[in-house]
Amino acid sequence: MGVLLVDKPPGRTSHDVVAVARRALGVKKAGHAGTLDPFATGLLVLATGRATRLLEYLAGLDKEYEATARLGVATDSHDPEGARTAEDDHWTGIAAARIREVAAGMVGSLQQTPPVFSAVKVGGVPAHRRARRGERVTLAPREVTVLALSILDVDLPDVRFAVTCSSGTYIRSLAVELGERLGTACHLTALRRTRVGAFHVRDAAPLKSIEAARPPSGAWLGPVSALSHLPHVVVGAREAGLLASGRRVHADVPDADPAVFALPGDRLVAIGAVRNGMLAPRKVFRRA
After folding, report:
1. Collapsing DSSP states into helix, strand and coil, what is residue 106?
2. Quick check: 30 and 15 in contact, CB under 8 A?
């Protein structure tokens, strides 16, 4: 089992990439830790085999993107795959300094409404499926955090920017809000995810290498390394055996939940919680 970093090409869904990995690597189980839109490229974090049980601990990590927004045109999906819904020339004459000023004001906590063409489920059905069926879709706003937003280049009507944000932030919606604050329509024309937590796209495997069943070794992460953002507790062989049996053990370590319990040499035993000097396993990865 392991975690595989993939550089997703444009035109493929995240589900497509998972299917390619499952077939090419000969594994029954595979999943990803956060969807990328079909037009988007960049880092997709996959887990294979028993490592799919780690996905819940990887899905909420902060993310970084590079994106291009086009002022003056709106689409129903907020991206290049949607139909045009509005067009104006209010973007002409907007100074680059003004765009940077507005972008700086978008850093912090924001109430963001996800696009109707998104994977957010409504009544158990992804919103994008309902929208494509012509159904009326209403999504509730949610709080997201933009940690950093910088303008990389202004070549009107295009604005290229980089953003660091909390999980669940829709960059398409950020582009639309940027346009609204500038007084013009806007949609996203390009999106590339460059980082998820401590994982970077420069270490990711091209999809072609996975299709050939030869992903570079540097794109693979062991379970313990993949969970480096969580507190780690090193246990001995006796404690590992007890944890693998689902039993709690004593340990003089700070409280943490969740925490990784591992043997020396980065061998994952379990994921659980530490409370008042007791280690309690929740997910066990070694046999008793």
Report:
1. coil
2. no
